[in-house]
Protein 1
Amino acid sequence: MSRAPYERPITSEWIFRHPRYLRYMVREFSCLFIGGWTVLMVWGLHQLSRGPAAWGAFLELLSSPASVVFHLLTLAFALYHSTTWFNLTPKALPVPFIAAAHYAGWAALSVVILALAL
Amino acid sequence: MARSNKPIVWGPFAAGGTLTAFLTPVLVLLTLLAALGHVPEALAYESMRAFASHWLGKLALAGVIGLSLWSAAHRLRITLYDLGVRADALVAALLYAATLACTGLAIYDLLKV
């Protein structure tokens, strides 16, 4: 006697079965915002290469309400990506204070870039 | 042992993930300030052009853009699989091709600045 082979159903409802799974998905969805923002920067670079007027138009595009909302969401997702990434460093590199060292480096780098850019 | 192309796609993912963890929040903060009307000095046309004109600036911009896009594309590929999209070869081909196209455009524009 033979039976039809079992086929595991493919679903995405598992995300909601546990808060941990949902946090995992939120972390993974950060890629949409980081990737989207980077594509926006590629467009900015294109406008930069076309001269001051095109760059001005790009800055104008940035200040639209949709862009402001997108930036706020991207900042939140990017911060979440950073913390989850640094919290995993002890698993990749089991050295004392490795996560703390990453947080310190992150803070220092951010301050230096802000100081240079503002 | 079966040959695997995993290290080739995973290496840039890890590098890009680390790079975006360190850099993206502060860079997004800068463009957010510009979006709110307080354009940082570094984002003024002359300073951006000067930065993108120097070979070190070009290298930094191309590297950050390429690795950020690659890590986002790779993560999106894995996420789509987790969500039940089983056409992994197609998804991977589309996402990696889009990444390479965007990075190529960025390099092309950088060479023109």
Protein 2
Amino acid sequence: MNQPILEVKNISKTLGGKLILDDVSLSLNRGELKVLIGPSGGGKSTLLQCIHYLINPDKGDVLLEGRSAAEMGRRNICAFRQEIGMIFQDFNLFDHLNAENNVAVALRKVKGLTKEAALKRARQELERVGLADKATLYPAQLSGGQKQRVSIARALAMDPKVMLLDEPTSALDPELIGEVLNVIVDLSKSGMTMLMATHQIGFARHLTSEIIFMERGGIAEAGPPSVLLAEGSCSRTADFCSKLTELLGKNG
Amino acid sequence: MADFSWSTVVYILGGVGMTSVLIISAMLIGLAIGTVMASVQVYGPAWSGRMVSLYVWFFRGVPILVLMFLFHFGLAGLVEEAYLYFFKTRLRIPPLASAITVLGLCSAAYQSQIFRGAMQSIPAGQLKAAKALGMSGPQAVRVIILPQVFRISIPAWSNEYSIMLKDSAIAFVIGVSEIMSRFKAVATTTHRHLLMYILAGALYFILTWIGVKLLAALYNKIRTPGLAETGPSN
């Protein structure tokens, strides 16, 4: 019965003549949080966008609850994307809409809710990320951490089955990282299935079931943090993480 | 000053009405076509972008006076003959229709470049985020990108309005009874050339001023809080 909710099968992608993803496969079970780490340019971001079909992979397939994205037409891909939430490093809020309308706009235009119903749902989601009092502020009036929480609320409002997070805290000032991580911890505890690219390894190791180390477009190694990050494991992951820790301090 | 009667004022105001119809229609045509062309140029395939830039180069490179003659005496004549041939009745394309067409197509070229610049200034991530929420590409442009584009385009658009208003005087040469042609008529009958053309200039100046002020007020009313704290300086 434990069929994976999301399966990524043999995805390859070449961009600008350079092989960015080379035959990458992974799977996520319901309620699982997996973490992608690795050096910049290793393909993490491209992988997440290929899973979402924001970038069409050259080869391979993505299966959501057994349904193949590669076999969907363009119209169905829009519905497929709706079921997968995406959080970007630089938030990508819609600048001309206030927080509640950022959340409500897709509910109205994609899900066809009335304005009142969409705004009601939007306020609920904003409350869930602790921003009930900021609903009428515009992105330019919010801090980075608040913007990222709005973007999480926006994704959650679509009732996604899986969330993909592309370095959600990398663009934030250190003192704002905590508020976003807290939201992610709550989400994980509530049973949301997530795949997150992050450098916040200290945070991730306690939550994740598996660390996937990506380098040069492929998965270099993968395993539970207790194995990969064990003292003296000599894994590529442990080596990378110790460098991160040296640079950023214990909580980095 | 007996010759400068109320009927003259009413006659001139009729010209203001005619000029208003002309430039409002032309700017709306330009807005509609320009929006589509800018979207195609920024988000469409490369070949369609090249078609648009060809169009823009054509209207940028040919004087409006030439275009007026070309459309009204050349193309409009062709259309009239074709109409007679197919429908066996006469169609007369009024000068106003030709002038609206020329100014509209010309404005479309310029407006497309205003909107194109505005589109390129909006972070590409927003389009990606809209698609990630399940919107199709065209829907994302319509719902997310264009409302922002129109807001930030208003200052440049008010510039386009002032140019368009003054260009509209050229419609006089194909027989549109707008402001310039009416002042010319009054000047000819009263022989008060200096006064009439000073008044004509002043009237265009006032109409420009009113339009630009209205657009500045609109810009301040609908601009996004927190973004671009200052409005256009004019």
Protein 3
Amino acid sequence: MSSIVLEARDIRYQYPRGQEAIKGISFHFRRGEKIALVGPNGAGKSTLLQMFNGMLRPDSGMMLFDNKPMEYDRASLRELRRKVGFVLQNPDRQIIAPTVYQDVAFGPTNLGYNEVAVKDAVTTALRHVGLPGFERRPPHQLSGGEKKRVAIAGVLAMDPDVLVFDEPTSGLDPSGSEDLMELLDELNHEGKTIVISTHDVELAYPWADRAILLADGQIIKEDVPDVAFGNTKFVRMAHLSVPTLLELSAELEKRGFSITGRKPRSVLDMVHIIESQARGSCGHPAPGTVTVCNVDTIAPGTIPLWVQARPGIAVGAMGTRAKQCAAMEQVLLEFTYGVIDKCILRALRGKDSLILTNGSMVGRVTERVEAYCRESGNTVQVTRFDSCEPGKI
Amino acid sequence: MFEELLEDVAQTNGLRETSTWLKLAAGLGAIVLCLLSTGYAAPLFIALILSAAILVLARVDLRTYAELFLVPLWFALMSVAVIVLISGGEHVFWSWDPLPFLALSITRESINTGFFVLCRVIGGMSALLFIALTTPMTDLFVVMRKVRVPDFVIDLAMIIYRTIFFLLDQVRQVYHAQVMRLGYSGWKESVHTFSMMCGAAFIASWDAGDDLVRAMDARCYDGKFALLGENRPVELRPLAALALFLVGASAAVVATQGMTLL
């Protein structure tokens, strides 16, 4: 997990007849990390990203992929670009072909897959981004969010190790952004390294494993998000703002709240901090439970029955497949993003909730809840609901 | 924007799932029959059947269809008027010689010829609209590859198809921005503003071309465009309907041979 996948050693780049865009940058990304490159417009984010898959070649310094220096001949570039998928900011500029199928198939075809393998790759990629059945649609009829997903599917179809996103949420509405960030989480959970560039600190702060603050072609700070964003000096230098949660926790600290250990990265963390200080004044009922259901293995029709038998339960869906399943089964969803945290929050108020998700994500719910319980000392029960005998409903 | 409208209708029409071959056979067959016909009735019959197919089977909105039909029909009517006035004949109803070299007359023969041409135009137009409204461009690409159109032509056509919509969007944005700032308030301004829009469109297409190359490179472009999806199979019922239509139309062509209006 911790091997270095992408590395830069003192790279510099100057646009022809322009000013220096990258002024000596070094960093490394580990396999399976979530990295946010954060900086204002014109900081050199896009330029830097284009070096990750060899679209630009640094004037001096060295880029390494898999601990090997990048080569810039045709064959090596092809191999590099297969392994480092790049999603442009504007999907209109990335979608080439006249139908969704052809566009997603573009990469695999050029990699020389046979027809069956291409079809397979396309189907899997479209299913992944939640657009099955869109094969024959022309891209100009799709919404912004759908276009973005098609662009991502086109890259996913090549099965890259590293996914690079330039401003992934630009042009998307808030719920579209949340959906997209969740998709990135899902991909990361499958072992892909994800790099995004953004100037949205609120987006990067809770999501990233590591944040790199860029300004004026240089790295200002590279650290875990609460440190990188917590220092007002660095944040000001990078023309950014301190994330609301961090600002709030800093203010609470000044007012005598003791905030030990990790800084809050979510509303859940914040609630925990406040509640642990004010314990006694707000009494805790017996905590509710979180039930996890794997939509891949559940028989159709059981979820609505199960939900109906438990009035007052809230249902959340994680991942595109789960959301589709909920829509098909006509289950009303209360949470569609930040689902685990919101369900823990409910459980703390003594309410029950059900999380719909699929295969690889089931384990993550348990992990996240256990991690929370360890840190907070609260106990929240997670149960599984995979198959259901009629009598048990 | 007209092109987009046509393509959008085609993408969602009721005959979308019918085999492209059958739809093309119906449209092209109808055009050939219209050309072969020597009487006015057969093209009208073909137009009637195809219009019914467009409206009922393909579920195209009547208004949309009428609008699409009326634009070329207007041109056809003007041409027919010229034909009627210029061509001569024996049964003269009305004549006028305004200039020594120009004689205008309306005769039985000229009316017959004009009406015949008009009917042919109507028949041919309904056939073309039938293809345009039921067969989206994306399906035609599949057919193009099947009939061995060179790959580079198809690849180019596909890139052009994709870029048209992108460019239209750009032009529309520029146009709106210009209208909002009163760019088309007078004739002189209009010319100036329009030239600016052309310039902007040119730069936008240049940029888009740059980006296209980059996007293709980033996805390992190696001179290959994806194989196009499979064609829909030829089904029995549409095939029977097509056969019935072609046989019926051929019969009409034969039966109404030489039929004239007057």
